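Hi F.,

I've been meaning to write this up properly since the lab meeting, where we talked about keeping a consistent format for the predictions we share between groups. The idea is simple: the sequence comes first, exactly as it goes in, then the structure tokens exactly as they come out, then a line or two of notes. No screenshots and no reformatting. I'm using this chain as the first example so we have something concrete to point to.
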Amino acid sequence: MPTNKKELRLHYKSLRKEFTEDDIEEQSLAVANNLISLPIWDKTYYHVFLPIEEQKEVNTEYILHLLSGKDKEIVVSKSDFDTRGMSHFLLTDNTKIKKNEYNIPEPVNGLPVPSETIDVVFVPLLAFDVFGNRVGYGKGFYDKFLAECKPETIKIGLSFFEAENQIEDVFESDIKLDYCVTPLKIYTF
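Output, unedited:
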């Protein structure tokens, strides 16, 4: 089995390629249903990634419904590939979403939300281990963003797959997850 980030990235990207649209919908709904039992619903600002369909990411639409049903403030991001930074905006009925050149759906404009005010972040990932380390796409956007959040911000990975035993090449700057939710279970770190 692969154990370093590069191998894990390749392995999980190829596993995801096998998924049909129905698989993604079914698994994404199961992830959202598992989220309901987490002790996170007393917060205000929830950051949600909008999935890159081409990468077959967890469809967060179910989570968006959950959050709006609970009347929460939903925050979405825009990525800056020059600085590897992200700017965050409140998702409202008026927010226009448009795909950027990397097919990432992003808000065109909106009310800015500083990273420090975000209470809960749903984190995209390709793989994670039983210690709460994650493997993303390797660009560092989320590590940089999570470092800007307050220390008590709750970080929740969303994954179609279960945990690896250990990711070998973890750096000190990698920010660990508090939870990771899969269609089958919830991991607490």
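Notes:
The two ends are 23 Å apart (CA to CA).
The CA atoms of residues 34 and 181 lie 7 Å apart.

If this format works for you, I'll send the rest the same way.

G.
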